[in-house]
Structures are given as C-alpha cells and as structure tokens.
Specification:
64% helix, two-stranded antiparallel ribbon, mainly alpha, 140 residues
C-alpha cells in the first residue's frame, strides 16, 4: 500500500501547472522529511516556470488591449502588479521580470533548495541545469 506522500505525489504529477504548484506546496509543508521531496521540489519549480510563461502571455495580451497611459507609471510596474501573480504568490512562488523581453520567470528558490539540501541527488543535476539557464537569461 502506498504511503501518504506517494499518493500525494501521484496527484501532483497529474495536475495542471497551478494545481501542481498548490499540491506540491502542500506536500512540501506536510512531508518535510520525505525521500520524495527533491523530486517534488523539482516539479514545483518546473510548474512555476511553466506558469511564468503562461502569465507572461496573459499579461502581455491584457496590456496590449488596454493602452498604457502615457506619462503614467513605468511599464514594468504594471506587469509586476498583474493580478494573475497573486494566487502563485500565495503558494510561495516568486517571479522575476525581464523588462526587455517583458517576461516573468520563476526565481528558482526550489531549485536552489535541491542543490543545497540534496546535492548528491539526481534532481540536483537537473536543478543546476535550470539554475544555469535562468542565470544565462539574466545576463543576456
């Protein structure tokens, strides 16, 4: 019989990006010593980055339709106050914003936790790749 952490992992795996984030957050809060934690952290971070792409598209469409007032606040401030970010913020997801590309990106906290707490895990290899990619994005 599967343990509670294994059952919740199956629910996380079958969810869309927001439900995956929310269920992964429940897992991370409830199963702090689970051997499945590195994999869930990786899923959480990946779902957050997937959500960032979707939120970027939604925000861009919203701000294209509504002309930003001339002489108003800087354009990036509208993006950073985009209401679509709120439910992810409540799940502990923090996004950065690339002003030039007008895109959100996940800040990588879960990936950094994997590297720090589980450096010898297979997930650490993947987390390092994702962190390198996010660092490269910031330097371009």
């Amino acid at each position: 019989m599967a343990s509670d952490d294994q059952r919740l992992l199956r629910l996380i795996d079958g969810a869309d990006e927001f439900d995956r984030v929310a269920r992964a957050r429940i897992f991370l809060d409830a199963f702090q010593r689970s051997s499945l934690r590195p994999g869930v952290l990786l899923m959480y971070g990946d779902a957050a980055e997937e959500a960032a792409r979707k939120l970027s598209r939604e925000a861009e469409r919203r701000f294209e339709r509504r002309e930003l007032p001339p002489g108003g606040a800087p354009e990036f401030s509208y993006y950073l106050n985009y209401s679509g970010l709120d439910r992810y913020n409540r799940q502990g997801v923090t996004f950065t914003f690339d002003r030039a590309a007008r895109q959100f990106h996940y800040d990588g906290a879960a990936w950094r936790e994997i590297v720090r707490r589980y450096p010898n895990s297979p997930e650490a290899v993947e987390a390092k790749k994702r962190l390198e990619k996010s660092t490269l994005r910031r330097t371009l």
